[in-house]
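Lab notebook page, bench 4
Experiment: in silico fold of construct C2
Operator: M.H.
Input chain length: 187 residues
Purpose: comparison with the prior construct
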Amino acid sequence: MKVLSVFVVAAAVVVTGCSKPSAEEYYAKAEAAQKSARQAADSLAGKASAKTLFAPVVEQYSSLITEYPSSLLAEKALFQRAAIRTNDTKEHELAISDYKIFAERYPDGEKTPLAMFLIGYIYNNELHNLDSAAAAYKRFLAKYPASEMAMSAQFELNTLGKSPEELVSGQAAGAKDAKAQVATKKK
């Protein structure tokens, strides 16, 4: 009997030790890794590859997304992974893919409008793919016309392909036209 109980305890230890981490454990590890990567990136200031520093973070978030796709933390992890790929590792195509997956999986999610806006933003400002940016902004405006980001999306759509100089001179010309219209109305 004693041998059997030792065997049961040993088997329980092996099974527990070999089981996959929970969604919460994956997320906690990812957050800790992200904090470490951010500190290292800040202190090394370009001396180390952000892609290398953030690889463990992306791996932890990816594991959570794969292992627990219906977890509430998977939604947060997917958005975080996309943000890291946008801001830290500059893997813009992968970030767009993540934001598209996010919008598809969580159509009513709190951050879905932001994810859809960022797809257009990355196409426009990082990849300079104006056709894809225009399509993304139009999809965003069709789905979220009352969003607080709708004005920004419309502005981005209206100014696609224009240089900062063109925008400044266009604003100056627009201001002159507006002043002229006001002056004409006063007469």
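Observations: Confidence is low (pLDDT under 50) at residues 1-16, 174-187. The first helix runs from residue 2 to 18.
Next step: discuss at group meeting.
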